[in-house]
Amino acid sequence: MINAAIIGLGWWGKTLVEAVSGVSDDIRFVAGTTRSLSDEAKAFAREHDMELRESFEDIIADPNIDAVVLVTPNSIHSAQTIAAAQNGKHVFCEKPFALTEADAAAAVDACEKAGVTLGIGYNRRFHPEITRLREMIDAGDLGTILHCEATMTFPNGLFLKPDAWRASRDETPCGGLTPMGVHAIDGFIDLCGEIDQVYAQSFRRAVQVDADDTTSILFRMTDGMSGYLATMTATGGGFNFQIYGSKGFVKLEGMTHVAGAPSEERRFKLFGNCTYKPIKGPAETWDAASFDVARAALDSFARAARGGDPFLIPNSEIVHCAAVTEAIVKSASSGQPEKV
Fold first, then answer.
1. pLDDT single digits (tens) 64-78
2. SS3 breakdown of the chain: % helix, strand, coil, rounded to 5?
3. Which residues face 165 on adjacent strands?
4. How far apart, in Å, are the Cα atoms of 128 and each of 69, 274, 293, 313?
5. What confidence tier does 339 reach under pLDDT thresholds 50, 70, 90?
6. Bridge partners, residue 244, by sequence
7. Number of H helices, E strands in the chain
8. Exposure b/e, 31-50, CB count within 10 A at least 16 = b
């Protein structure tokens, strides 16, 4: 069991605490801090037997805390990761890990030099349906992979206040890219390998804050497949993820992390209807298993920090995903395809 501190107690920070509180044999949250030490935050900390601290610096200086879990604005992930690593803390960081390849590489380097474990919140990789899809691809059941595709939507952008950090273009460029789309990009990297080139467009249609709500991206993978991703932050919540091969395709449907939804829904219901359609014969359909992806990611991180199996997502792929994110933002600005 490792002792962890949660940095950031917004709706997703609370969800992570709820995922392991009283049930995990690998990790427990003993402390936390948040920008606003409100009565609500203090009540949540008491409910989950955590000590609420004044600052991030207080936490990383505490020798009794083994790890930090960062649920903070995107632009400070790298600096916080470096500071935590230099203080000997294992780091689990919510996505996106960084907005540039250089920041990601610097933070990874700090973790590796300090000998601490780095985890990232691409929790969909842990779902049994992604494991099954990965095994199908590796076994050749889908044949030659032709194309990967995803659409991720939620209405959260409609409810953002202008002073929210998620409403800032600097913190969340390209609308739904950083809160949602990077999950799909991580999936593309996992199942199809590195991404070579991107071409993006992103704009605002309906949200009231100065942020994009409609983003679409074309990909060309290093191994030759094509890809497509759309994100929207001003419509109903949904998730579609598909891999097409010369022997058939698999389509996974589900939902996204809609703010305000019950914690159990955000953790257990991300995958729903599943379809396998071979090139000949009828489609096979089934319901995805109910599975807590948030707990799975944190438990895996904790076991790796204690010397167990390495965290599922290699550091090299964490950096590559940041490089892809940077190239997408650049392409949306330039209007041109951009190399990763």
1. 999 999 999 999 999
2. 40, 25, 35
3. none
4. 24, 12, 9, 15
5. very high
6. 147, 249
7. 10, 15
8. bbbbeeeeeebeebbeebeb
- Six token digits for residue 274: 């599943």
214-271: pLDDT as tens digits: 999 999 999 999 999 999 999 999 999 999 999 999 999 999 877 778 888 888 889 9
Rg (CA), the chain: 19
Residue 160, CB-side half-sphere exposure with 13 Å CA sphere: 27
Helix, strand or coil for residue 308? coil
How, if at all, do strands 238-245 and 195-203 pair? unpaired
Q: How far apart are the first and last CA of the chain?
A: 39
Please name each of the domains of the chain with its CATH number. 2-122 (3.40.50.720), 124-295+322-339 (3.30.360.10)
Q: Is the C-alpha dihedral spanning 43, 299, 124, 162 positive or negative? A: positive
Nearest to 7 by CA among 87, 97, 64, 84: 84
